[in-house]
Structure to design on (500 residues):
């Protein structure tokens, strides 16, 4: 068994901090890497040691695999955790880490490679009786053949880049006359974005839900699943709100999806933490979409309903330990929700809004977890992902989790930049969300920026209340009356200002 005494985290922000915390609880010392823009970042302060790996641009720092491996060796590190994004799904990096005599905290390079190509992934799982979205199982080049397949599949169809990711490289085709042109576009986009022009056809499921299954496997070949995450609230095919468990799954479908996910993992001899994504239609038919071979952004909701620390499990597996639990030891406890807090303006087409966090006060109290990488007074750098925090809650049931999340959002104080918190609150209060009757089109169907007529911030309310109190006093002094207690005036005015 290879003991890890010292771990390098090849990432930044909230996920680097998240990993440092679990490592510390396990007595593992940590090395942070940082770019010049992140010199004062929290992950740098939290780690036992930190090393600068280059200028701000990711391509010159967080994506510099060789530099990171070199530093790891210099500092006597035994293992590298890649987090998510950056080098986490780069099979060459995983291979180089291993070849340098270090442990890569993640699956084998072969598993990353197979699952990194949507077509190779479909081919690998086809032996395992996993339902696939109807369509082609190989790259398609000839438009005449594409038309034939599309006609059999039935329109609308989706043309997808095999190497696609991050919600990019997809084109919907509504009818045959559009097919040839859309196919040409898809190929040229795939070449320029991913350096690989292979595209294939999938039936476009019109009102689908995105439901994924968390899996964990050890190097002895044991694989379990940790139930599902419902990720249907998306913008531009990117997740914004996630929850576990899903409102719509029956125990039977949950079990069938869990077994299918374990089958997908077996198909590539998977070990480590991974996520198998499915698309689910109105009748609860589910189809394999792809597998993400890393820790996922939304992993905390699974941690809160299962009580399993996924990062610790990743590290235990990387050290060669067998899983300490079996499938039947796992169960779902309560309900968890996560909202991604982005530095984006929801009233202005979600444009990134970077700047200084003038006020930054996290919500607290029962069942609230905040995974973030910032503090009051810090600047949000322009170079990276605009996600500033993940706000996660746990409740005894879905109703309590929703109420708790709304309470936590109201408690969160952020000024200096615009965030997506008001948008998240809108979703959580919407009937479609509350009743569970929603799909990946929620935002298109139900959201308009003008629905966010947020009440003025507390600072504005306090100022307005003080002014109102002064005016009241003046008026009463003139009339010979007594000034009221300021707190009462403040509160009454505040409620009035909110129009309630
Ligand atoms: P997930 O599938 O874990 O929910 P997303 O779909 O939101 O992640 O993210 C799309 C891609 O962008 C993923 O490959 C993810 O690893 C990457 N990514 C997301 N957030 C960050 C970040 N803060 N830094 C770097 N890469 C990121
Ligand atoms: P990526 O690699 O970009 O994450 P995915 O295949 O996981 O690509 O798809 C991302 C999202 O696109 C899904 O969550 C879903 O909202 C939508 N999507 C993908 N495939 C289909 C499909 N066949 N029909 C309808 N929507 C789809
Ligand atoms: Mg995906």
């Amino acid at each position: 068994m290879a003991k890890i005494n010292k771990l390098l985290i090849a990432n930044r922000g909230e996920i680097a901090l998240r990993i440092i915390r679990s490592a510390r609880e396990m007595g593992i010392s940590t090395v942070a890497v940082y770019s010049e823009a992140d010199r004062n970042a929290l992950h740098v302060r939290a780690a036992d040691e930190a090393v600068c790996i280059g200028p701000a641009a990711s391509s010159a720092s967080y994506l510099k695999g060789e530099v990171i491996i070199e530093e790891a060796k210099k500092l006597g590190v035994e293992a590298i955790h890649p987090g998510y994004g950056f080098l986490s799904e780069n099979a060459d990096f995983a291979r180089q880490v291993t070849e340098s005599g270090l442990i890569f905290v993640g699956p084998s390079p072969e598993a990353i490679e197979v699952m990194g190509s949507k077509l190779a992934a479909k081919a690998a799982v086809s032996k395992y009786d996993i339902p696939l979205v109807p369509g082609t199982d190989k790259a398609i080049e000839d438009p005449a053949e594409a038309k034939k397949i599309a006609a059999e599949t039935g329109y609308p169809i989706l043309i997808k880049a095999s190497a696609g990711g991050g919600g990019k490289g997809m084109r919907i085709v509504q009818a045959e006359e559009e097919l040839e042109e859309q196919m040409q576009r898809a190929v040229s986009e795939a070449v320029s974005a991913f350096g690989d022009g292979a595209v294939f056809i999938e039936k476009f499921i019109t009102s689908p839900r995105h439901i994924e299954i968390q899996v964990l496997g050890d190097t002895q070949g044991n694989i379990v699943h940790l139930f599902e995450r419902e990720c249907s609230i998306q913008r531009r095919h990117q997740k914004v709100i996630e929850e576990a468990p899903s409102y719509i799954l029956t125990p039977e479908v949950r079990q069938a999806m869990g077994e299918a996910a374990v089958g997908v993992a077996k198909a590539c001899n998977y070990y480590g933490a991974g996520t198998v994504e499915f698309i689910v239609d109105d009748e609860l038919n589910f189809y394999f979409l792809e597998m993400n071979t890393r820790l996922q952004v939304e992993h905390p909701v699974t941690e809160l309903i299962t009580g399993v620390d996924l990062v610790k499990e990743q590290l235990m597996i990387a050290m060669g330990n067998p899983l300490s639990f079996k499938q039947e030891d796992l169960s779902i406890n309560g309900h968890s929700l996560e909202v991604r807090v982005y530095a984006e303006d929801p009233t202005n087409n979600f444009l990134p809004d970077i700047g200084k966090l003038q006020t930054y006060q996290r919500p607290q109290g029962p069942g609230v977890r905040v995974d973030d990488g910032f503090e009051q007074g810090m600047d949000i750098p322009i170079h990276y992902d605009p996600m500033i925090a993940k706000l996660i809650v746990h409740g005894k049931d879905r109703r309590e989790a929703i109420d708790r999340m709304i309470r936590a959002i109201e408690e969160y104080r952020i000024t200096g930049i615009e965030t997506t918190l008001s948008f998240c609150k809108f979703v959580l209060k919407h009937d479609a969300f509350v009743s569970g009757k929603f799909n990946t089109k929620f935002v298109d169907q139900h959201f308009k920026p003008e629905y966010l007529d947020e009440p003025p911030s507390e600072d504005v309310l306090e100022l307005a209340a003080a002014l109102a109190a002064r005016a009241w006093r003046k008026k009463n002094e003139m009339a010979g009356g007594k000034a009221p207690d300021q707190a009462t005036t403040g509160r009454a005015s505040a409620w009035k200002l909110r129009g309630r």
Summary: Residues 481-500 have pLDDT under 50 and may be disordered. The longest helix spans residues 458-478. The longest strand covers residues 223-235. The radius of gyration is 25 Å.
